[in-house]
Design goal:
Blueprint: H1 2-9, H2 17-35, H3 44-71, H4 75-99, H5 106-128, H6 132-154, H7 159-187
Length: 210
């Protein structure tokens, strides 16, 4: 009976977090030339190539990581990776539309960005109970979406520079976390520190006898 309990508690897959974060980093790397206004990246061919990287790495790797996290009974990681993977599919579609000369509807994108902003704010708090580095990772996403929303509402293009910088930061933090998980596991020691939780959960009060 004990053996059955032990086997049930073991994860089905190895930790898929590095896979999801590396896929996110590759997707961010594909978007950087566009974000910084590199002319060759703003052509139809450049947009289509960036869209392909967004689909296979940004969406594909994170979808796999999310489903594997759910299978491992990691609801928080599974929710973030899986939901974010569909956002990368939308990046693929938006870039493909731009390559074809069609601009996605700004009002609908703004409405969805506002919803995503709320989602990521809650996720930021949740991941802060696990790691300061994960908190920083989610804060970077919060800044990115806040600037996307501000740019759409104010039409101030200077927010684009902040979005580009936040994309660089997101890629760097994602790679650091992925490398830390891989190297720390492979070496059996802490080669790249992850940091402890930013918030400590409050112990639940014992139930009062009825």
């Amino acid at each position: 009976m004990q053996a059955t309990d032990d086997s049930a508690s073991k994860p089905i897959f190895a930790d898929p977090t590095p896979l999801g974060l590396i896929g996110l980093s590759v997707g961010c790397a594909a978007l950087l030339p566009i974000a910084f206004g590199v002319k060759s990246a703003l052509t139809a061919d450049g947009l289509r190539l960036a869209a392909t990287f967004c689909l296979f790495f940004g969406a594909g790797c994170q979808m796999l990581a999310g489903l594997m996290s759910f299978a491992n009974k990691n609801g928080l990681g599974g929710t973030l990776f899986t939901a974010f993977s569909f956002n990368w599919v939308m990046n693929y579609w938006s870039l493909s539309e731009l390559a074809a000369g069609r601009v996605p509807n700004a009002a609908i994108i703004l409405s969805v960005d506002l919803c995503f902003m709320l989602v990521f704010l809650v996720m930021t708090v949740a991941f802060g109970y696990f790691s300061k580095l994960l908190l920083l990772f989610l804060l970077d996403i919060d800044i990115l979406y806040a600037c996307r929303i501000a740019r759409e509402l104010t039409h101030v293009q200077a927010f684009g520079h902040v979005i580009a910088a936040a994309t660089v930061g997101l890629m760097a933090i994602a790679l650091y976390i992925a490398f830390a998980l891989v190297l720390n596991l492979a070496s059996g020691r802490v080669m790249l520190p992850m940091g402890g939780p930013a918030f400590l959960p409050k112990p639940l009060a014992p139930a009062k006898p009825s």
